């Protein structure tokens, strides 16, 4: 079941693709059902932050757009695996869906890195590097990240990504063993797309934690909460992306035979499925855990409830029920998990009011 024979210049390689028909559909459906509405809400809250002139909203919106583009390709991949790895569409659609699948990883890594560095600068250097924490700078950096990944993606358009197996199935974006041209791009993806941003991410979070420890006016419970949030972010980041890139490097270094490709196939594709959960983790970590977003979400829920109640009764009702949280519409709002951290750096002489320098941290 699910055997695929891929022709190369040197040999025929038959690999059991059963994992594609069993585990992959469960993962894709889960990410579709959970990730699509979550990222739509995340996009809305990111838009609110841009309106509030908060540069974090730019990074959050770009991160969410990348996730949504990948999620939109999942129905095609779902049909592909349910058809026993038979691509029913054209060659160009295979290349586009493959690019959305793989490049989403590096776009996500890039914007997660931007968010982390922005928080580090706000916490550890609140009075310096202000020029890097503006809407204009965030937009410019976002354009560079997208351009870099689109140029890297164009490399795949130069190669044929649809081949026929022994059962006349059209296999999409799969070559076993690796083709020679794939090794170079894989080294680039590992070193530039993953390892370098990961080092920046680790350095930024290390600086954030050190800044928290140096804050003598912060309660221990608040420090513990900040550290848990920071560490949980790193754990999820590493869980989603580290296994895939380790196995990608292993394949690029040592996969030269069909036997090796068979031995690593299931582990490699399991790690590739793990990267899909980043689309669910992004809005959870960087949007739904902040108090600001909780209030906005409560307001949205109250408005929907008021609309439904009005529709049932046919009469006007209050826009917000008694006790519903009011919307927070300040420039200092942040749609991500480290908003609380800024208040820990307010000194007794600078209470963080509208006129204090600390208030600009957000």
Helix content: 55-70%
| Beta-strand content bin | under 5%
The CATH top-level class label: Mainly Alpha
The CATH topology assignment is Rhopdopsin 7-helix transmembrane proteins
Biggest sheet strand order reads 1-2
The overall number of domains is 1
Task: Describe the protein's architecture and organization.
- Strands 1-2 form a two-stranded antiparallel ribbon. A two-stranded antiparallel ribbon has the order 3-4.
- It is mainly alpha-helical and 362 residues long.
- Strand 1 (3-7) and strand 2 (12-16) form a beta hairpin.
- It is 65% helix and 4% strand.
- Helix 1 runs parallel beside helix 8 (278-286), helix 3 runs parallel beside helix 5 and helix 5 (180-214) packs antiparallel against helix 6 (220-254).
- It has a single domain (3-290), classed as Up-down Bundle (Rhopdopsin 7-helix transmembrane proteins).
- The chain crosses the membrane at residues 26-47, 59-78, 98-117, 137-158, 187-208, 229-247, 267-289.
- Belongs to the G-protein coupled receptor 1 family.
- This is Ovarian cancer G-protein coupled receptor 1.
- Pfam families: 7tm_1.
In short:
The chain is mostly helical. The protein is built from nine helices and four strands.
Write the layout of secondary structure elements.
Blueprint: E1 3-7, E2 12-16, H1 18-51, H2 55-82, H3 91-124, H4 135-154, E3 162-164, E4 170-172, H5 180-214, H6 220-254, H7 258-276, H8 278-286, H9 291-313
Antiparallel strand pairs: 1-2, 3-4
Helix pairs in contact: 1-2, 1-7, 1-8, 2-3, 2-4, 2-8, 3-4, 3-5, 5-6, 6-7
